[in-house]
Amino acid sequence: MVPNKDRICAVVAARDAISMWRQLKRALRRTRTIELRLDWLSSEAEIDRFLQKLAKSRPRATLIATFRRRDAGGRYRGPIAKQLIHLAEAGQAGCKWYDMDFETASVCPDKLIDVLLGEGRQLLSAHFFDCMPKDLNQVVGKLARAKPDAVKIAAHCESLRDSLKLLRLCRIRRNVVAIPMGDVALPARVLALRQGSALAYAPVENATAPGQIALDEMLDLYRANKLSRATRVYGVIGDPIGHSLSPHMQNAGFQARGIDAVYLPFLVRDLRDFLGAVVPLGISGFSVTIPHKERILGLLDDCDPLAAAIGAVNTVIVRKGGKLFGYNTDYVGVLRALGSRIPFRGSRVLILGAGGVARAVVFALAHAGAMVSIWARRPKRAKSLARAAGGEAIERGIIRREFFDAIVNATPVGMYPSVNDSPLEGRELNCRLIFDTIYRPRATKLLRLAGQRGIETISGVDMFVAQGTAQWELWTGQRAPAKIMRLAVVRALNAEETETGTAN
User: Fold this and answer.
1) Is 380 among the catalytic positions?
2) Which of 5, 54, 197, 475 is the most exposed place for a label (fewest CB within 10 A)?
3) Which domains does the chain have, with CATH numbers?
4) Model confidence pLDDT, tens digit, residues 84-108
5) The model's pTM
């Protein structure tokens, strides 16, 4: 479909011609396939202004003119005749392709379209923003009967199963653009080209559909334009998952070592839905985070004895035949993060929480010789964990009256976006050291309270990088470029904190 081989299509969308042109220039620095969302321009004058400038400049690129009506998910409210005229004007200004929404095509005479747009190449599109159509083949058949140059189907996906169903169309038909929409479908968007889609869309600035990934992120973080069937796929599963910086860390490692692999964030509400996609997507391994670290145990084929003892898995290797083998590298992260700060043997440490992260912290410290105390919102879980690891479960009221060498927060309390929450109050921080396993934000409310009391603090970044590099080494069998991976995490955090105004 795209003669210049740039299959990542940059989406340019703005309300005025100046902003539209600025985005177009940015897009041209990254790709030579660009969609111009003319329906986003706020007035006829802005449309004319932009197209006149385009006609004079004539950039060397494959340009797709899109002028989508409201009933097809666009912003245009006027008559169909005017819609066709603007598409024709875009063709005269240098757009070789135009996107014709099925809603317009189904009510507009073919002869009229041919007269006005006959010289352009047609991408006939159908959008399903609410749900996946029951019969995708029927949809493709309807589109194909109009004999367009290519077809595009964008559909909301509630599951990875839906995403796979949509991407499968690309295997059986040529010149099909398949676009899975929605948060669950984000990994499928990245893998769409690898699965055979003719194009993948990525906005320069403004998202025009649910779940779109920014152009720079698609090209730099995921390298979606370079993925092939030989590319190994890894990822992190959790709910929520948008906060994770694991893709920055793991992909930096792959790029530094020249490994043909990609690491993606999977929003997973249903573990069985994700596991059903492991083989079809060619997933070679994955990280596990909240709330699946304990739940995944019952779905594995085998497990490392240490992870089984901890009762939580944060790393899975996919072996031959799709067999799943679990590990826990949080254990390594805890020891590396705390090892240079306190002597483990004989130290008294309070762990907050009794979930998957807490279990790794408790077992790591107890096995290293520390005396562990556990407090959790669910006393039964705390007592069960204490029995398993040889520690003690304590009540909340005791904390403010006791002294600990270290307190470790192994709960998600204080994690972005709930940055003003803390699992403990300032008066309860009677210790030499506070370690918060949360890394986003680096300066959690708990750590800020500790700093106000002159208590030494450790951010979760240390543990995060240590457990992540251990995962990377399990998957690849190589030594991880730890410094580069840490730098990628720090850069991402710095950028985020600068953008949100939360930098220290």
Assistant:
1) no
2) 5
3) 8-228 (3.20.20.70), 234-328+474-489 (3.40.50.10860), 344-458 (3.40.50.720)
4) 999 999 999 999 999 999 999 988 8
5) 0.92
